[in-house]
Amino acid sequence: MTVPADATTRRRLAAVTKEQIEAATIKRLAESSLVIGVHLISVVTTPTGVPTTPPGGTTFNTVITSNKEHIAAVKAAADAPAFKAGLATELGVPNLVVEDATSIVYLAVPRPAAPSGSTEVNTVSFGFNVAADAYDPAATSGPTSPAGYAAALAASLGVPVDAITVTAVQNADGTWTVTAEVDAGDDAAAAKAVKDKAEAFAAGAPAALATALGLPAGSVKSVAAPTVAVAIVAADGATAKDVVTIGFDVAANAYDPTATSGPTSPAGYAAALAASMGNKPDGTPYTAADITVTAVRNADGTWSVTAKVDAPPGGAAAVQAAANQVSAKTPAELAAALGLPAGSVTTAAAATTGVDFVAAEGTTAKNVVTLGFDVAADAYDPTATSGPTSPAGYAAALAAQMGVPAADITVTAVRNAGPPVTWSVTAKVNFGADAAAAQAKADEANSITPADLATALGLPAGSVKSIAPATAEKVFEAKPAATPPINDAAPLDDSGASNQTTAEEEMSAGIIVLILILALFVLLPLAAFFYARNKYGPGKEIDFMRYTCSHSNAAVPFLYMPKEMREDKLSALNSKPNLMNNQQEFDNLATRAAAPEGETEEEKKMRLYFEGEKI
Questions:
Q1: Rounded CA gap, 380 and 507, in Å?
Q2: Do 331 and 376 have their domain in common?
Q3: 165 domain residue, yes or no
Q4: What is the pLDDT of residues 313-351, one digit of tens each?
Q5: Alpha-carbon distance 72 to 107, whole Å?
Q6: Considering only CA atoms, which of 474, 450, 477, 475 is closest in space to residue 461?
């Protein structure tokens, strides 16, 4: 790409920069449905220094990196006249010279990690044709059944049988086109291994697959090459939602993440962008509350600002159209819309529609930074409760570096057998809902050296052997069950079933009290019976009870016994009974029981009552 020398006289007061070219390239490719982070990995522009004709111009080289499956579409879009014309318009350089893309070079690059809150699902698919009698969709067992195919393929491919799904479509000639899909989960290496094994079937004779399936020779007619599809799905506890993203870069003094108001504050950006977007799909105006603004500070002090707008179900296209009103503005126009000084916005990218992953109902999200590093054998002691080599010591030291409480850091380690023997330490740092802080700390951690980390941990030099890249991810977990408040004044609800168990009913306080009362009524009389029998001898137990339970107070009729009778019973208890010669004793008792002088009629009735009871 060549920018002529006179380009600075057209629409611009400054020369075209590589950052502007990168932003314009991303924007124009997005118009061809090639989105950065989805179809594109990166767009990097560098000045080449190649002399131009006429002199004074600047030549740039732009490298567009994409996944292999999208690179052909990227080259076709970049070579299209509409893309070149649009790039010239975007940069304000009508005589911009854009050459066709050079040959495609395939490089082995790491696959980008799945977005926070999501996970990869790698699916290997391959198809093959079999004879009409070699597949029976109604069968539940045997080599021609779907279950039989799945079991045979699982054994051949080295995967669990429940990871394979077998379907088939019958062709007009009676043969079957069978499709086998192998779910390798988030294990890309396992997916590649399955694909390699499936390719062996495709490369070899169909007879090899027939043998593996336990089918007669000639049953498999042809085998297609396998393919691997990678899908990004919501992780456990998460759900996906459509979101439209607007991105642009601003000057160092044009954004203040700590400000709560004003044009340089996140709230100020959100309000200004909302005013530029018009109405939401429901017809109401956008407000600052509809837009989430974050920013990352670049090495040169500038800020890369990201504004995200949630799209309601089915409303992504309408939100995208509203966001396009912002991304269609030139940097100067966008700066004016934001209420910033001229030149504050340096580059602007096209608005894109993507997917964010958020906590599903009943779960909560937290942002976790994972730190991994290997230390010497004597640099970690899992049994220690204090000191620099203890898990608590690691947590405290890392907490000081990460700016969080030690309680928010969980440290674990695995001992490596060696030689040499080392510990692989993993520290997970919980930043709660602050995703920006988590990412910033992960970025800071990636710049630390093993020597610096050993110093920070208070360990001897050389204790930290290696450091793995720090990552920030969103983790979802179930919300704790809420404890209902206790309201003593609230009426009891007897409409539902009782929560009391049978064991609780059997051991209730009322039952225990009843048992104790019954025990007293049984045990006390028995104790008195055996006491009287032991002290006074057999046959005197009833007299003992009558004497013990009676009184001589005539004013209280209940259990009343005249004093003389109580004394006689006491004497009888203390004497040895003579059952053969006791007539005189009875006569004496009768004489003493005669009516005393001056006895009233009421007293006589009471005396006779008790004497009759005695007889």
A1: 52
A2: no
A3: yes
A4: 888 888 988 888 888 888 899 999 999 999 999 888 778
A5: 14
A6: 450
